[in-house]
Amino acid sequence: MIVPTKGRPRYLRAALESLAAQDIGRDAYELLVVDDGPSRDTRAVVEEVAARTGMRIGYVEREGVPGLNSARNTGIAAADAAFLALVDDDVEAPRGWLRELVAGRRRHPGYQCFGGPIRLRLEGSRLRMCGREAPPITTLDGGLRDREIDLVWGANMAFDRSALELAGSFDAGVPYGFDEDMWERRLRAAGGRIMYVARAGLVHRRDASDARLGALAREAYRRGRNLRAYSEHAQRAPGLGGELRVLAGCVYHVFRYRCGNGLLLSAHSAGRVRQALSGRSFP
Q1: Which of 111, 221, 230, 275 has the most CB atoms in a 10 Å sphere around its CB?
Q2: pTM of the entire structure?
Q3: Each residue of 169-182: b (16+ CB within 10 Å) or e?
Q4: Longest CA pairwise span in the chain (Å)
Q5: Per-residue confidence of the chain (283 residues) as pLDDT tens digits?
Q6: Pairing, β 57-61 against β 31-35
Q7: In terms of Cα–Cα distance, which of 78, 80, 19, 23 is closest to 50?
């Protein structure tokens, strides 16, 4: 199990504690933390959780250019397992999460890549959401049954090494965030298949300090810039006029539905517009 991280020891601690508590037996899996911004604090968290839980948790520093995909590639190269799982450092995994992923792989032998639901939890937040749109934070809901799917997110993704033979390594040259999309496109183009495992869900969390409106809006703006940069990199970016129309719709949403999520959507869209105006490939 590979956990890329960068400067978030508080989140990493909670993620590792949940991953160390999986109910399939500690000898059945190993944890590997890949530090994309090497720091003593991150290493200390790894050592602390390993000592307290008795779980084998390795620590390696990212090789290559900075970025999530370089961290993923470093972890893949350092791991020995034939079945690899990727999770983000801000998740919380139920005790049966890994067991369900492994069971999904067993049920669907014709597939090379697997992923499950990602549910959002804003801890202590009272932000009103009308429910018409999902907030601009990574989530995934593919339904209540296993099914083939085009895309799963790297916050909850597992794959056989045969997938790497088909799709190659993750591309370290794409903007930070949304990086797995291009890898999964290559996998499908080479004949690989992706399975959504409905019972292998986990939680994408924001703790109370990061679940306030200001923090969420800043994060939404940053993600909007990253997504626009990625779209430009993939040559799928809409024109500036289209981005402005979306921004206007998001602002309308705030007042029409008195929806706090509309503020986050507006911040996300504003980030996209700002990136489009910057003329740069990366934020």
Answers
A1: 275
A2: 0.92
A3: ebbbebbbbbbbbb
A4: 55
A5: 999 999 999 999 999 999 999 999 888 999 999 999 999 999 999 999 999 999 999 999 999 899 899 999 999 999 999 999 999 999 999 999 999 999 999 999 999 999 999 999 999 998 999 988 889 999 999 999 999 999 999 999 999 999 999 999 999 877 656 678 889 999 999 999 999 999 999 999 999 999 999 999 999 999 999 889 888 888 889 999 999 999 999 999 999 999 999 999 999 999 999 999 987 554 4
A6: parallel
A7: 19
